[in-house]
From TrEMBL:
This is Biotin carboxyl carrier protein of acetyl-CoA carboxylase. Gene3D superfamilies: 2.40.50.100. Residues 76-162 form the Lipoyl-binding domain. GO terms for molecular function: acetyl-CoA carboxylase activity. Pathway: Lipid metabolism; fatty acid biosynthesis. Keywords: Biotin, Fatty acid biosynthesis, Fatty acid metabolism, Lipid biosynthesis, Lipid metabolism. Pfam families: Biotin_lipoyl.
Length: 162
């Protein structure tokens, strides 16, 4: 391995750490940057609260993919991943969350509500289309993990139904 490749890797690691710090300092949920070194030689980095994903061409032999720990803040307490909860309802798409049909109206559901399978829980707006998210099963709404008007990623936990 050349000294240039080692220097590039060290620079990439420092770059990712700097992005993680920027994410934390500015209370962001995600940063994505493409760093170009030359033709067919680039690094695409997406740093999100859940971790880091990197893509790079095979211009140099990349090290095995490693998972960078999620950014932690001093106020964050260790919590289990809500997406792994047995009753987690996850987002089927990227979009914006709406907890009620119109601003100022009653939310579709609240914590403690009993829901039936197929009942609308919330709406995800994607590409100017309002997509109703139905309850996958009957149960009680234990937690609502999103805020009205918040952006959401595919697979992000929205609420817990038990």
């Amino acid at each position: 391995m050349s000294d240039e490749t080692d220097a590039t890797r060290a620079s990439d690691v420092a770059f990712i750490k700097a992005l993680a710090e920027l994410l934390d300092q500015n209370d962001l949920t995600e940063i994505q940057v493409k760093r170009e070194y030359g033709e067919n030689d680039w690094l695409n980095v997406r740093v999100a609260r859940g971790g880091v994903m990197m893509q790079a061409p095979v211009a140099y032999a990349p090290a095995p993919a490693t998972h960078v720990a999620p950014v932690a803040t001093a106020s964050s307490a260790p919590v289990s991943d809500p997406a792994q909860a047995p009753g987690a309802v996850t987002s089927p798409m990227v979009g914006t969350i709406y907890l009620q049909s119109e601003p100022g109206t009653k939310p579709f559901v609240s914590v403690g509500d009993q829901v039936v399978e197929g009942q609308t829980l919330l709406i995800v707006e994607a590409m100017k289309t309002m997509n109703q998210i139905p309850a996958p099963r009957a149960g009680t709404v234990k937690r609502i993990l999103v805020e009205d008007g918040a952006p959401v990623e595919y697979g992000a936990p929205l609420m817990i139904i038990e």
